[in-house]
């Protein structure tokens, strides 16, 4: 049994604090996240959340960019930002919180008092655009983004951080207006995991963040969440090696709010299904049929949205055989052809992944933040949910959420 304690504290301005101290670890990690991501953007503003993430590190009203970078370089061993579908987060890993006041004061300043100077914005637009372009290097990644774009009616570039043509022309006042609205304490969670003193951390956070205005604008969800009709898309492959085709099959899933509102076991059943599908595709398409080097699946659940995507890359002449196997394996899972041994393997795999998360302060703080913003639960609660699922639970969820060729809320993409 995993033993972890989570302590929650909420400031008067709405900032939620979740702490998981562990004296046996040798580092401390801080994650701060906001309830705002690229699914909250209007398509004509595609990339604004990614720009905001970059600009947070560019200086504030009190701390210059140089001094801010020096603070992070001297007090942390790792720092980064990440823009996700329904959240934007900032990660910091430290050896300890011995200078907690300095760190918390700096974080409060950079997160809530950034200035978004025009010259810095111009430079970061170039950085963001280059980042988006670099993510187009993978044929499967691009086609997977097309599948997600169809399911949610978003531009495919959204899933790589925004539309470069739009990013180039977003005015400074538009970026700053979004920042002013949505980067508020009531839209934020701060999570800390590792070796630190709980009381001192709460005091440091309270003193640093308590005077930040509590005005909160709840962001709208600008992504399509209704039903989509099935579509079969044929694309020209970007793969420079001729003779290969990619098979991508995407399925829309409910978001965490829908899953838990219906009283179902939420994320855990999707994790099992994803593990089962990956195992079956790998075995049938690679090991048994010899059609593919890579066959995999990917699943994600956000607060309001979710998806599962199956991938395979085969020879051009094997596309129909590959499709037949892919849909055949999905049908078997839908029909309950899942055995207890497969469930046990999935449980063991996920258990080891979760243990690795708990052992890493950075991964643990990230998991705390993501769990709070998406699920309203702790990583331990999600782990216990996963461990409690049985074979019938997984079969029932598979029948509810998996789809096959031709069904609504799904899309098939072939590129060659």
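Sequence proposed for the structure above (416 residues):
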């Amino acid at each position: 049994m995993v033993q972890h304690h989570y302590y929650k504290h909420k400031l008067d301005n709405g900032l939620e604090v979740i702490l998981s101290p562990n004296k046996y670890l040798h580092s401390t990690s801080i994650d701060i996240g906001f309830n705002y991501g690229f699914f909250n953007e209007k398509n004509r503003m595609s990339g604004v959340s990614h720009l905001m993430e970059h600009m947070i590190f560019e200086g504030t009203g009190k701390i210059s960019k140089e001094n801010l970078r020096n603070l992070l370089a001297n007090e942390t061993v790792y720092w980064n930002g990440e823009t996700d579908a329904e959240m934007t987060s900032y990660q910091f890993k430290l050896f300890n919180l011995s200078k907690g006041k300095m760190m918390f004061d700096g974080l409060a300043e950079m997160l809530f008092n950034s200035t978004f100077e025009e010259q810095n914005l111009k430079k970061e637009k170039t950085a963001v655009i280059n980042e988006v372009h670099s993510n187009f290097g993978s044929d499967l990644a691009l086609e997977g983004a097309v599948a997600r774009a169809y399911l949610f009616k978003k531009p495919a570039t959204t899933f790589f951080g925004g539309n470069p043509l739009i990013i180039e022309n977003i005015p400074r006042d538009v970026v700053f207006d979004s920042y002013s609205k949505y980067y508020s304490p009531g839209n934020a969670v701060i999570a800390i995991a590792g070796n630190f003193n709980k009381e001192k951390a709460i005091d440091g956070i309270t003193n640093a963040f308590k005077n930040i205005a509590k005005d909160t604008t709840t962001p709208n969800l600008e992504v399509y969440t209704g039903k989509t009709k099935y579509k079969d898309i044929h694309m020209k492959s970007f793969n420079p090696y001729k003779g290969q085709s990619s098979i991508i099959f995407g399925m829309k899933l409910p978001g965490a709010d829908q899953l838990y509102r219906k009283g179902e076991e939420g994320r855990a059943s999707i994790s099992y299904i994803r593990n089962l599908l990956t195992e079956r595709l790998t075995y049938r398409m690679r090991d048994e049929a010899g059609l593919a080097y890579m066959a995999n699946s990917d699943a994600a659940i956000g607060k309001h949205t979710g998806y599962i995507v199956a991938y395979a890359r085969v020879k051009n002449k094997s596309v129909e055989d590959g499709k037949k196997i892919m849909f055949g394996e999905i049908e078997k899972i839908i029909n309950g052809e899942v055995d207890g041994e497969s469930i046990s393997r999935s449980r063991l795999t996920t258990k080891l992944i979760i243990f690795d998360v708990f052992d890493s302060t950075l991964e643990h703080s990230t998991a705390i933040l993501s769990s709070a913003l998406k699920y309203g639960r702790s990583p331990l609660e999600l782990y216990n949910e996963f461990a409690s699922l049985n074979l019938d639970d997984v079969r029932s969820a598979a029948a509810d959420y998996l789809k096959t060729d031709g069904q609504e809320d799904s899309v098939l993409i072939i590129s060659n």
